[in-house]
Design brief:
The complex is a heterodimer of chains A (320) and B (250). With 320 residues, chain A is mainly α. Chain A has 11 helices and 4 strands; from the N terminus they run αααααααααββββαα. In chain A, the strands form 2 sheets. A two-stranded antiparallel sheet of chain A has the order 1-2. In chain A, strands 3-4 form a two-stranded antiparallel ribbon. Chain B has a single domain, classed as Ferritin. Chain B is globular, with a radius of gyration of 21 Å. The chains are: A mainly alpha (320), B mainly alpha (250).
Chain lengths: 320, 250
């Protein structure tokens, strides 16, 4: 990253006004003068982000659709963060698993920081671990879907006891996240730099999914009979039990990480038609499932919220 | 990491303007507290606009959404050609493990599908369907780059292609004006990211989001690349006459 290049680019776009904004005589900037001395190289990108936030104070003018999209992303990132954090604290993972999950948790924490810095005061409050119930019992108000992911006494605080359940549900969270970012991208089309940041988080989530899927197979070199593949196969759509929609307006009556969303623009992951073209019947393709695998599908915000509410301790409080 | 910083909306200016004359502003910033502290790390680099575009012999992908679709089509042609060659050669037919064979067979299928999809979807203004690759820098007999060899092993080359593809789609998103095309690019890039992570795991455990492709110290974001940067790498794998430019997407 070349800071001077960025500032030059901005100066060209705004007629040099950026240089005034970085003028140390400005009150907003004064407390940042000299801050570089205290900033380590690792913290630099966030520090630069802070610099621009102070100079531009952007959140008051972010369009509402952008704020809503980023806040939904933020709630999903917290859902994942506390999920991985709880798994690591539960002492159930082997070395390879805990190594991978620690890396993923680090990414989620950074995504949270990034999203918060873009949103500023428009960001939601941290829901904390207590905000989530990964058993799906919505804090003991209904039957747990995954009792091993927090127990039945204090499911919004309890440790996990099953690695296979943890990896299975984790994969579903990540794949839902990939679909959510994909579905939200179009809302950011007018905010080019925020769009690029969201795309750059989207692909990292997909890398996470790929890794969790190979962990579920028992490792990258596991026999080819082991499932799932690192990409979404069409059989996962019917094989993954649908979830209640939690009365989210606009969501289908039942929802799932691989199911169709609210309209034809959000097909199930088993879809093999792209832009009106069949992507399975192609010469030279060996596998009968490759057409569905080669494209991931987006999901609308209502359906994403409906899925995620199943894992909120209080479904009225999150994913609204 | 130059992303999401430069076009943030502004609040109304309230300070009295004109305290600094226009010309000294720039140098003032560079030697002011923050300018020096942060900029000092980067002072070696000058403004890098206005570099010359590649001259004759390049196939330009064109402009607008068609240009970006062509850009994607070209990269998918390259990837499909690579995997087609992988599965026909002795690493794959010989030493590859069963898991590796299954993975490469799927990757070949996926990339052929992506290529054929773009071929059908770009109905007007499509670049050639017959880009000629140059894989002379890849040794299709070696699983990974052999010690002392100047040629990439199959896994190393696959990693280069997949990581480049992800960075390319992410860096191209900003140039797309149609929401439908943006979503389509999103449908493909996450599959490329799944590929990239798998190939990386085959080479070294738990490198699926290593710092060379994801900013694991700062933002946790993929390191997206603009078309000019991507093509500088991609052109190393394309024959003379098939090398690409993207002059409209600086």
């Amino acid at each position: 990253m070349d800071l001077l290049q960025i500032i030059d680019d901005i100066a060209k776009a705004d007629g040099g006004e950026v240089y005034d904004r970085f003028n140390p005589r400005r009150a907003a900037f004064r407390n940042l003068v000299g801050f570089g001395k205290k900033v380590s190289a690792a913290a630099l990108p966030l520090a630069v982000s802070t610099l621009f936030t102070k100079a531009y104070g952007q959140t008051s003018t972010l369009p509402q659709v952008v704020i809503d999209t980023l806040n939904l992303a933020l709630q999903l990132e917290y859902l994942e963060k506390y999920y991985y954090q709880t798994a690591l604290a539960s002492n159930i993972l082997n070395t390879e698993q805990s190594g991978a999950i620690t890396i993923i948790l680090n990414d989620e924490n950074l995504h949270i920081s990034t999203l918060r810095s873009v949103l500023g005061t428009a960001a939601i409050a941290d829901p904390t671990r207590a905000g989530y119930d990964y058993t799906g019992s919505q804090n003991r108000t209904r039957t747990a879907l995954f009792p091993t992911l927090g127990g039945t006494t204090a499911p919004n605080a309890g440790n996990f006891t099953s690695v296979s359940d943890f990896l299975m549900v984790g994969q579903q969270f990540v794949d839902t996240g990939v679909r959510a970012y994909k579905g939200g991208a179009a809302n950011l089309i007018s905010q080019k730099d925020i769009l690029e940041a969201a795309l750059n988080i989207h692909s990292v989530e997909a890398r996470h999914s790929s890794r969790i899927r190979s962990l579920r197979r028992g490792g990258i070199q596991s026999p080819t009979s082991a499932t799932p593949k690192s990409w979404i196969t069409p059989d996962e759509t019917p094989a993954t039990p649908p979830l209640p929609n939690n009365n989210v307006s606009g969501a289908p009556s039942t929802v799932g990480p691989y199911n169709a969303g609210a309209s034809a623009a959000y097909p199930a992951e088993s879809n093999t038609t792209q832009a009106g073209l069949s992507v399975q019947a192609i010469t030279g393709v060996t596998s009968s499932t490759a057409g569905a695998e080669a494209f991931d599908e987006p999901l609308d915000a209502a359906t994403v919220k409906a899925i995620a509410k199943n894992f909120a301790a209080n479904p009225a409080a999150l994913f609204n | 990491m130059s992303s999401h910083l430069s076009s943030l909306p502004k609040v109304p200016e309230t300070d009295a303007p004109g305290l600094l004359a226009p010309v000294p502003r720039r140098s003032f910033l560079r030697y002011s507290g923050a300018g020096l502290a942060l900029g000092g790390l980067y002072l070696a680099g000058c403004s890098k606009d206005d570099t010359n575009s590649p001259s004759g012999g390049f196939i330009d992908v064109g402009s607008g959404d068609t240009g970006i679709l062509n850009y994607a089509y070209a990269l998918e042609q390259l990837e499909a050609a690579f995997y087609t060659q992988v599965v026909a050669n002795s690493y794959y037919t010989g030493t590859a493990s069963a898991a590796e064979k299954a993975i490469f067979s799927d990757l070949k299928d996926h990339e052929i599908i992506h290529r054929e999809f773009f071929k059908q979807a770009i109905t007007t203004g499509r670049i050639t369907d017959a880009l000629v690759p140059d894989f002379s820098g890849i040794d299709f007999m070696q699983r990974t780059t052999a010690s002392g060899s100047t040629k990439l092993g199959v896994l190393n080359a696959a990693m280069a292609f997949e990581d480049l593809g992800v960075a390319a789609y992410n860096g191209a998103g900003r140039f797309i004006t149609s929401a439908d095309y943006l979503t389509l690019a999103g449908k493909i890039v996450s599959v490329e990211a799944r590929h990239a992570a798998v190939i990386r795991e085959l080479i070294t455990t738990n490198t699926f989001v290593a710092n060379d492709v994801v900013d694991t110290m700062g933002t946790g974001e993929e390191r997206s690349k603009r078309p000019q940067v991507v093509l500088a790498t991609a052109n190393n794998f394309l024959a003379a006459g098939s090398k690409l430019s993207a002059n409209s997407f600086a």
